[in-house]
Amino acid sequence: MDKKPLSGIRVLDLTQFLSGPFCTLTLADLGAEVIKVERPHMGDSTRTDIPTKDGTSAMYISCNRGKKSVVLDLKAPAHKELFLRLAAECDVVVENFKPGTMQRLGLSYETLREIRPDLIYLAISGYGQTGPYRSRGALDIAIQAMSGFMSITGEKDGKPIKSGASLADVVAGLYGVISVLSAVIWRGQTGKGQYIDVSMLDAMVGSVMQNAIGRYSLSGVVPHPQGNRHPASAPFQEFSTRDGSLVVCCPTNAQFKSLMEGLGHLEVYEDPMFHDTEERYANKNALSDVLSPIIAEWSTQEMAEMMEKRGLSFGEINTVDAVAKNVQLQARDMIIEVEEAHAGRFTTAGFPVKMECAPTQKLYRAPALGEDTESVLRDLLEMGQEQIDELYMAYRD
Amino acid sequence: MDKKPLSGIRVLDLTQFLSGPFCTLTLADLGAEVIKVERPHMGDSTRTDIPTKDGTSAMYISCNRGKKSVVLDLKAPAHKELFLRLAAECDVVVENFKPGTMQRLGLSYETLREIRPDLIYLAISGYGQTGPYRSRGALDIAIQAMSGFMSITGEKDGKPIKSGASLADVVAGLYGVISVLSAVIWRGQTGKGQYIDVSMLDAMVGSVMQNAIGRYSLSGVVPHPQGNRHPASAPFQEFSTRDGSLVVCCPTNAQFKSLMEGLGHLEVYEDPMFHDTEERYANKNALSDVLSPIIAEWSTQEMAEMMEKRGLSFGEINTVDAVAKNVQLQARDMIIEVEEAHAGRFTTAGFPVKMECAPTQKLYRAPALGEDTESVLRDLLEMGQEQIDELYMAYRD
């Protein structure tokens, strides 16, 4: 197998739910060996999130493909000892417990660093390991609310709406990846590990919300939900077609002229109300009223072909079933398969970056709970079968 | 100055708008020297996006802090020659043109690789460099629509709503960072550069949308907007308080009991309609009707204190002005200052990861257009003042 950027990097993964597992999923895609530590019987809480098939959830499998699963009871002294021995063999530890949990377990960074001095330790949390909110419990929706994201998302003059996906979890996970890759580079230069503190709130504010905060700060104007309209350009919104809907965007005058030519209604472009960018934006509601019945006569496919030929910006508003079948995503090998012992094989989304050092893989395996316990203990800690059996006797189902 | 992970890495940055600039912003935060190439007179199109102050936009400054600005006219042969000489001195080239643009300019990866064999070349685009949609123009909202994100975001039974922030741009930018860091590690191992193809659509589908695609694929159920409710848990929604609003989440029975104790209405928990997780979810609308008048008597602050003391999950629904003043973000040094020659100094959001190798910086500078042209040409290409003057004579304002 070809060498990937993180080949040879071993990650001990204590995370569950989404932020941490999404981070270590990407580390696995980049070649790391990820050993996911799960508690006896239950494992990661998301294993039973609906929808499930034969007891295992789509969420668990999608987000934990390509990892190993090792069962440890971190509250039992003998298993805590196992954890410390495993940590000594790993380059990276990732956890997304509530701050203070690892200290209470006796597994703090300070303890782990003693047995593995160049350890890279990533802690992902809702609000971070410091500051007045550090002990607050956090779920994705709470962070979407706190970060201001909800206050700018929704219908114009409507109430705040959260993202339909767990955005703060995913963005924090991506910063987790960025921080581990950076720490691996830095360790190569200095020989030193480090403690990394990623918070979901910081991650949202420093990325998705950065522009809104800068704009507010410069102008003093507090932004509110704008629906699907653009703050300075029209048309820039969704339209219903004969058989679906799509968004249409014309940021420049030339693009609007081309759109109206394509629609066979150049007289709309020639109307002084809509003839330049500023007029169009000032009269955006009137423009929407004029365009809606025109576009309603076209099918989504016809609109897409016409706009594509003219190099205009648009997007079909796809439902998730259409995304899974989309020809572009198929052509890019983004819709891949994953297999798990209980749920069998189904499709999910792959690693998005196309690069030589991380080639596309079209079939992955996700681990059943504890699937790799014996092999990891045998291979990494050189333990015998008898010793392993004794350590897990109390946990047999 | 302390060494950062990308100290010594020089990035030639041809990007404008958001996806590319956000990527190179993060590379700069990690220590890279980012030389932003801007066209004469106009520069990056976002320099004039409203709101502006003395002609420079909040968006440009927030997203381009810590970079150098060099003016080049890539259509003029003498400047194209300058670009090639600069590329020879750089480790990374980043561009977010429509696919095919660099080829048309005579500056393709193949050309650049000849003069810099270990070059890391990152192309960010809407749909990617391959596949049937590769030549489609793409804006953030089009990708939010295409990726399925809009189809799962919005009021329950309402129409699809886009994120109020340019989500697809930011997520693609983060994958750009991940890919460049990976390529730097891989170059260290193999001596080889590479071509990297990141698309906004792939980035959204492989991260934010991954869970929805996996769930759909396993269950066959197409997801639609759910408002702010959770698909399996209640209460998990926003409530109005006496003076604002907040989201309240109780994924477990114990948390719901604690909430009702804190609110002084344990009888709601004892009601058989709401006594366990499944009943509560089945009767979630009735539960919302019961809780709304109770919570409406509390202030947001009182609710926050009560829930925090009990370790419950909640989040105030902050507007952007509240985010900029938030005590937790202040304590984490996430609200920082940026200074530009024309707009002066204002606040924006900083780099979210707290780690030793990328220490927090509280004041940054963003470049005026071409601010670093002379120093870069002098230092990197050893050009004299006369030569520089001649190359830029035609572009004096």
Description:
The structure is a homodimer. The mean pLDDT of chain A is about 95. In chain A, the strands form four sheets. Chain A has a six-stranded parallel β-sheet with strand order 5-2-1-6-7-8, sandwiched between helices. The first copy, chain A, folds into two domains: about 10-210 and about 325-395, Crotonobetainyl-coa:carnitine coa-transferase, domain 1 (Rossmann fold, 3-Layer(aba) Sandwich), CATH 3.40.50; about 235-240 and about 245-315, 2-Layer Sandwich (formyl-coa transferase, domain 3). Helix content of chain A is about 40%, strand content about 15%. Chain A has about 400 residues and is an alpha/beta fold. At the A-B interface, strand 3, helix 2, helix 6, helix 7 and strand 8 of A face strand 3, helix 2, helix 6, helix 7 and strand 8 of B. Strand 14 of chain A pairs antiparallel with strand 8 (about 195-200) of chain B.
End-to-end CA span of chain A: 37 Å
Q: CATH superfamily name of the largest domain in chain A?
A: Crotonobetainyl-coa:carnitine coa-transferase, domain 1
The structural class of chain A is alpha/beta
Largest sheet of chain A, if any?
A: 6 strands, parallel
Question: Low-confidence runs of chain A (pLDDT<50, min 5 residues)?
Answer: none
**What's the assembly state of these chains?**
homodimer
Quick one: how many beta strands of chain A? 15
CATH class of the largest domain in chain A: Alpha Beta
* Helical residue percent band of chain A: 40-55%
